[in-house]
Amino acid sequence: EIFRQFKIDVLGRGADDVAYLVGGAGRGGYEDIISPPSDYVTKAGDVLMLDTGALFDGYFCDFDRNFSFGPPTAEVQRAHETLYQATEAGLQTARAGITAADLFESMWRVLEKAGASASTTGRMGHGLGMQLTEWPSLIPTDQTILRTGMVITLEPALEVGRGRFLVHEEDLVIRESGAELLTKRASQTLPVIEP
């Protein structure tokens, strides 16, 4: 039901299609970030994440948003704020002439300071355009130089508890002077839905 309503809302706001919609939900975080719709019934204490790839005029957007059912735990709110700060570090770093690895590193420093493990942190973003996922890939070894006009996502993730995650994603375009945000920035405070 949540996925269906989200898709209807996105189409109602002018998207041509919602070609990709996945998510996850669970108590204090989610175990899987690419789950299709299911019969799972959300309840107090759950965190819901929706990740969408909507199309407009042949181009993809790719962003996700998190919601807490009832007040989030302090642990979940801290994780959400850490992801917000990691994304902010990426936004401040992104500009023409740096590498995809440089951008990864700027976000990784924030996550590492918060206690993240390298073994649970994968790529933290990717190129975006006529395909949902394009090159470059924001990983430690990608030496692709970012150029003016490239559209990329910033997508840091953080393990909240054993096997439970939060992920955050924004879209931006690289400009000579820095990043231009294309998505409406998610709130620094985790939005609460009363169950």
Question: What does this molecule look like?
Answer:
By secondary structure, this protein is of the alpha+beta class. The chain has 3 helices and 12 strands. Strands 1, 2, 3, 4 and 12 form a 5-stranded mixed β-sheet that branches. The protein has a 3-stranded antiparallel β-sheet with strand order 7-10-11, covered by helices on one side. Strand 10 and strand 11 form a beta hairpin. The radius of gyration is 16 Å and the shape is globular. The two termini are 14 Å apart. The model has no long low-confidence stretch (mean pLDDT 93).
Kindly provide the name of the CATH class: Alpha Beta
Topology as a string of helices (H) and strands (E):
HEEEEHHEEEEEEEE
**Count, helices:** 3
Q: Find the count of extended strands (DSSP E, 2+ residues).
A: 12
The main pleated sheet reads as: 5 strands, mixed
Structural class: alpha+beta
Average pLDDT figure: 93
Distance between the termini: 14 Å
Shape estimate: globular
**Total domains:** 1
For this entry, give a set of tags.
Creatine Amidinohydrolase; 195 residues; 32% strand; five-stranded mixed sheet; alpha+beta
How would you summarize this macromolecular structure in one to three sentences?
By secondary structure, the protein is of the alpha+beta class. The chain contains three helices and twelve strands. Helices cover 23% and strands 32% of the residues.
